[in-house]
């Protein structure tokens, strides 16, 4: 369950938060496929409770009312079409699977597909679920439970959300049927929402009953779904992520927390020389790494002080480090702009999501940030694809916040997070020749729209990163996007 089954040469997925299926299909064909992205985490595709009383917040999608594939992102036909078109474009789809719970208790009780529920009776007829399918006696998780009481974290309600009992054969079968239906439609795997709130033994049974990936969508025969379990473990809790790594991959929340600290200059970049398990991170193959996710970018979930698109220069620095560094499987965030942390995606008065528009410079409009379309970010996806599994070598630092390193003889990257300039002759490990920096610009014919770097026969090059440059990163590699 730890292999994302990306198409050959791809390495990186992006969370297209709250995007519509038709827009994702188009994005696979016009941008993500051609640019070498490996996959997409989509928002939950199953029917959720409509919450008009809170102006349709983004988090209504974390309140399932059935497993019908009807949401603000689209219906089952649109979902099916998206998965097929993205797989054809070489881009895999990973589903955010909400299997710990159903809805909370609200006055409204209609779902995005028209299903209803009777919360007081724990009744969800569109599944159907009833009282016996939920944990009993009823209880709600309190802050202290995370320190004392694993059983309460697993068997009580998270934020008042009706807590399914994955220990019963019936509930397991509903969840397995839902996930297998998605596998048959061609998805490559799942994010397991709130995995900490479910028993590892129950999850193992569920995972083992999942079908192999659909060979009609280009997966090798016998391929298991990629599973990354959302477990927030920053230490000090009764439940450890080590209970989940024997099952499948785990979200690495320490990754973005520590890199956010460093790139905000609350720690020196030079300490990153042993970034990886030396920092207490998960083993590389167990780790789904990211800087921000949909929760911590708005102060929900773990952390606080996580870099986001709002601190763009530091954020692009941290993202570039993640994509240049060999540890783990990286995931990018692609956001809609927000100030109110509850607000849902751009929508019209009827609650329909407004599609991102694409500007002439390839950036997005209509309220969508589309970090994945920022040159500094998509160029580093190509960098990572190019350097592959090569080793990190030739670490250099200035004893503070200037660092550089090579990836085999395929890539070189430098960072300047000081308030003074970096100007050094450094070992790049690349073959002699001319290269375009893929951060400050792109290659255009035989020229660079940004910085041009000349690597000598000894592999060394003069590297300049001004403190006031637009970006704090410089990256060159042996691929066609960079080599002249
Ligand atoms: C997750 N991971 O474990 C998601 O990443 C996270 O976004 C989800 O919380 C959470 N688990 C449940 O799937 C979000 C949001 C919560 C929100 C829930 C449910 O962060 O604030 O809770 O979704 O929509 C909301 C209200 C809360 C209320 C609850 C139940 O904010 O006040 O609790 O609904 O109605 C009474
Ligand atoms: Ca639970």
From TrEMBL:
Protein name: Uncharacterized protein
